[in-house]
Each structure stands twice: as structure tokens, then as C-alpha cells.
Amino acid sequence: MLRAWAVCVSLLVATMALSRQASAAAESRERKITTSEIEEWLEAEPGNKPVDQGVDDGDEEPLPAPRHHGVVVESGVGFVNHLGDLGHITPMAPWFQVRVGYEPFSWLMPFIEADASFASTAYASRPPPPRSYWHYGAGAGLRLGFAISQTFGVMVQGSLGLALISEQNVLSIYGYPNADEPSLYAGAELGFEWYPVNPHLAVGVRGGIRTYGSGLARERGGGSPLAALGSVQIRYAF
């Protein structure tokens, strides 16, 4: 009986000794905070405490997606205003455009285009009474575009094509007998673009000038058949 009690006491003493050794080892692994460190933490300005210094929210924002470049479809609406003698016959007209291009590089895009404006002879002397007509154009061109930031960019483009009006005798009475026959045009535009969050989309505003060939050259004493252009565009890159 005494031997059993002795064994139990020995086991209890050994267990307590092992527990103390483990506790001492754990305490030795933990660094004790000194009184001076506590005082420095209490006296620190708000925001300078280690607990206040975390990851900035801006560091966690994802990077913007890269802009897509490839096949581009673009449409726009604007105005065309003839500056020569035709400006005394035809007022400013709405102008509709569509383009399809391909960007082999982020700054270069060859394209084909088609456009139409709905005009009239409202400024011409009467008779005859004012008449309406469509002015069609189709051609090809080249565009250079440069991003000045992640949100905005600039572009410049030039194009060549053919244009004609839809009615045979609308402008012939005013000295434009060839207006209904295809004639050469050349145009240049400069514009700015805004890049939304969607990497496929871009919205732009543009202005430029276009000169027309023999179709809108007046038969007698006419000046250069020039027109001012302006439009708002939206494009999608696949």
C-alpha cells in the first residue's frame, strides 16, 4: 500500500516538473514588453502606431485592363457644313458615318468608311422650291492614335473616296451638273478619345475638313468645294 502511494506521488511530482519546464520554455520564447515600449506606444501620434499602419486601399485596387486592339467597328453622327458657293445653297446637314478597320498596332489603323448626309436647297433663291437630297460617300483611310493617359487619347486620320448625290437635277440648276456622278473627295480629321472602364469601347469627338472634286465644283466661277466636318463617335474593338 505504501509502495503504491509512493509511486503515485512520484508520478505527480514528475508531471508538475514537466509542466513547469514547458511553461518556462513557452515564456522564454515570448519577448517581454518593456515599460519604455509601452510608454512610447501610448505617446505616439494617431496613425503612427503599428496597429494603425495597414495596407493602403489604393494598393489593393486592381490594375486597369489593357485596351483591346484588333478589328474595330465605329459609328458616328455629326454635321457637314459646306464652305464654298454650295454653302449659299445648302444649309448645315446631319452627317452619319460607319467605319470598319483593323489595328495591327495600338497606334495605327487602316480602315474603310461610308457616310451619308441629308441635305436640302433651302438657302437657294426661288424658284424652284427647296428640294432634299442625300449626299453619299465611301472610301478608305489611315488613322494614327496615341494614348496620353489611361483615360484619354488623341487621333488624326486622313481618307480618300468617292461621293455623289442621290438626285440628278437637284443641284444642276444651280451650276453643279456633275453632282450626281461619282467624284473624288479627300478629308482630314483631328480628335480626342475617352477610354471607359470597358477595354473594348472608346468614345470620341472629331472635327476636320473635306474637299470634293468635280462633282461639287461649280461650273462657272466657283471656289474650292470645301466642307467643315464635326462628329461624335463610338467604337468597339474586338
Walkthrough of the structure:
This protein has one domain: Porin (Beta Barrel). The model has no long low-confidence stretch (mean pLDDT 84). It has an 8-stranded antiparallel beta barrel with strand order 1-2-3-4-5-6-7-8. The protein is 16% helix and 42% strand. With 238 residues, the protein is an alpha+beta fold. It is elongated.
Which short descriptors sum up this protein?
single chain; 238 residues; alpha+beta; Porin; eight-stranded antiparallel beta barrel; 16% helix; 42% strand
Strand content: 35-45%
Number of domains: 1
Report how far the terminal alpha carbons are from each other.
Answer: 92 Å
Structural class: alpha+beta
Biggest β-sheet: strands ordered side by side in the sheet = 1-2-3-4-5-6-7-8
Task: Give the topology string: H per helix, E per strand.
Answer: HHEEEEEEEE
Count of helical segments?
A: 2
> Percent helix among the residues?
10-25%
| Residue-averaged pLDDT | 84
Outline: elongated
* Main beta sheet: 8 strands, antiparallel, barrel
Which class in CATH terms? Answer: Mainly Beta
Rg from alpha-carbon coordinates: 39 Å
Q: Total strand count, please?
A: 8
Stretches with pLDDT under 50, minimum 5 residues: none
CATH topology description: Porin
The CATH architecture name reads Beta Barrel
Helices and strands, with pairings:
Layout: H1 2-29, H2 35-43, E1 71-82, E2 93-102, E3 108-120, E4 132-147, E5 152-165, E6 183-194, E7 201-212, E8 226-237
Antiparallel strand pairs: 1-2, 1-8, 2-3, 3-4, 4-5, 5-6, 6-7, 7-8
